């Protein structure tokens, strides 16, 4: 009789174990090294064991790990102030994850209309292919059947429209509509970016209709696309934004950012968290900003993105039977596959390069933002070797 597994069977795990990491590299217990272009699914923004993050976490661990939000936490205030200074936001609420940041964003939007004598406005428009988390509210917002199945009635109040269809979006706006929630670049949905003009049109529509614009930048934020946040490419600002993943550089925390007007309903007692904004997370968050906001950091992201884009474009031309398209911006890139994406992920893994599958038959490349040009070219060589292997198998 097979030994019972102690963990929930909710993950289809790769049969791999990693013992340590440094920069963009992971190492197995037997010493095999892998180039990590998955980065914990866009989480390890500064790679593995970044010295500034490691020293900051060690230093904080010697002081305080946890305090209740009953008390003042200077590092929490400092991080919130820094985020407000470099974004549209006036207010920040710290969470433990991206899903919690989205929950806070949804509650913030609905509560805004409640306190402004419009309690009937609670509906939120989202897009097909979206992924906003795994809580009951966020799977309802995402609307994907595979995540909704078996969990009872879908949480009410979400209306979905086809990706990038502004006319369809306009058609579902009603008196109950409170907000529109979108990812500037869909991650799980297959590295599908909304155009800059589309984002500007969306901002105009929200202003015309008195609707709040809520952005999910959990995967696309904190330098991932070559701007601090992806919406900056369109020259717009949201009313509310959810952030996580890269903001902690591997330490689990997220944040909901909002204008003072949008957050006017979030008063004492309306929302809370036990662990959100804890001293360890705040120390690491401030350390991440130290690096990401430093002169030249985002320029580096864009420089490396150019190397990868040019290399991937060349591979697309040379392997048209395997690659349909190259997508994305910055270091949030996708290979749209002509064959099942799992085949390319496995072939790349055999070349000791890690990547992440996504919807629409895409393979995501999400390297740490500190990746060098040499490491980017190394990755391209490994992708080429993987494609060559698949091509020879097909013939």
Defining key terms:
395 residues, alpha/beta, 7-stranded mixed sheet, 4-stranded mixed sheet, 12 helices, 17 strands
- Count, helices: 12
> Compute the gyration radius: what is it?
21 Å
Overall pLDDT, averaged? 96
Unreliable stretches covering 5 or more consecutive residues? none
**Main sheet attributes: strand count, strand direction, barrel closure:** 7 strands, mixed
Give the overall silhouette: globular
The class by helix and strand makeup works out as: alpha/beta
Number of strands: 17
Helical proportion, percent range: 25-40%
Strand order of the largest sheet: 4-12-11-10-7-5-6
Please report the distance between the alpha carbons of the first and last residues: 42 Å
Q: What order do the helices and strands follow?
A: EEEHHHEHEHHEHEEEHEEEHHEEHEEEH
How much beta, percentage-wise?
Answer: 15-25%
């Amino acid at each position: 009789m097979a030994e019972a597994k102690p963990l929930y069977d909710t993950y289809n795990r790769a049969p791999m174990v990693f013992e340590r990491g440094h920069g963009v590299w992971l190492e197995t217990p037997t010493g095999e090294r892998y180039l990590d272009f998955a980065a914990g699914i866009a989480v390890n923004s500064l790679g593995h064991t970044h010295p500034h993050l490691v020293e900051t976490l060690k230093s904080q661990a010697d002081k305080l790990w946890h305090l209740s939000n009953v008390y003042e936490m200077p590092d929490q205030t400092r991080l919130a102030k820094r985020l407000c200074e470099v974004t549209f936001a006036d207010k920040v609420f710290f969470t433990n994850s991206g899903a919690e940041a989205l929950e806070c964003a949804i509650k913030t939007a609905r509560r805004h209309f409640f306190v402004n004598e419009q309690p009937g406005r609670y509906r939120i428009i989202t897009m097909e292919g979206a992924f906003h988390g795994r809580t009951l509210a966020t799977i309802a917002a995402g609307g994907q059947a595979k995540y909704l199945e078996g969990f009872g009635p879908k949480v009410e109040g979400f209306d979905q429209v086809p990706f990038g269809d502004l006319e369809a979006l306009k058609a579902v706006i009603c008196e109950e509509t409170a907000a529109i929630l979108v990812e500037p670049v869909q991650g799980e949905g297959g590295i599908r970016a909304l155009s800059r003009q589309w984002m500007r049109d969306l901002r105009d529509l929200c202003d015309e209709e008195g609707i709040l614009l809520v952005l999910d930048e959990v995967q696309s934020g904190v330098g991932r696309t070559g701007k601090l946040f992806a919406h900056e490419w369109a020259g717009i600002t949201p009313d509310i934004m959810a952030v996580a993943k890269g903001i902690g550089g591997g330490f689990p925390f997220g944040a909901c950012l909002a204008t003072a007007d949008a957050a006017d309903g979030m008063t004492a007692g309306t929302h809370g968290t036990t662990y959100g904004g804890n001293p360890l997370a705040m120390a690491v968050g401030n350390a991440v900003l130290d690096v990401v906001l430093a002169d030249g950091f985002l320029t580096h992201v864009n420089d490396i993105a150019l190397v990868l884009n040019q290399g991937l474009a060349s591979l697309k031309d040379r392997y048209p039977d395997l690659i349909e398209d190259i997508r994305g911006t910055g270091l949030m890139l996708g290979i749209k596959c002509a064959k099942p994406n799992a085949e390319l992920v496995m072939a790349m893994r055999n070349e000791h390069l890690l990547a992440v599958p996504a919807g629409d038959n895409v393979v995501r490349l999400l390297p740490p933002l500190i990746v060098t040009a040499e490491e980017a070219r190394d990755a391209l060589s490994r992708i080429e070797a993987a494609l060559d292997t698949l091509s020879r198998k097909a013939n």
